[in-house]
Amino acid sequence: MKPILYYSESPLQKPMEAFFVLLTGGVLYFGLEILLRGFSHLSMAICGAICFWFMYRLSRRRPDLSLLSRALLATLFITVVELIAGCILNLELGLNLWDYSDLHYHLLGQICLSQSAVWFLLSFPAFGLCRLIRKEVFLCDV
Prior knowledge:
By secondary structure, this protein is an all-alpha fold. It has one domain. It is built from 4 helices and 2 strands. The chain has a two-stranded antiparallel ribbon. The model has no long low-confidence stretch (mean pLDDT 92).
């Protein structure tokens, strides 16, 4: 099967790879929210892009870490991004995009243990997608 994008070691590979990964993460998260909640916000696409980029870089730079370790690091990173975004978007700007105040073990209603567990579970297929992108789209060593 012919790869979708291939730049070998051309000067465009890294910027194109970054753009592709950021776009993929943003579109997937935005679409997932619309599918599950019926709505989303552009800021969620940006957060999804940042989080997926982190996961992609983590899987590329630290292949020595077990998948479980990478999933735990991704969960921590995503939870911190969610807390920062929630404090800015919901508490400071009053957009009220989400509120976990009704759930157990929440912090300021912006993050909660159950949502972190969801991020942990979703990180496994996300890391699989990272691998697929590296291997099939950019023909790089996995």
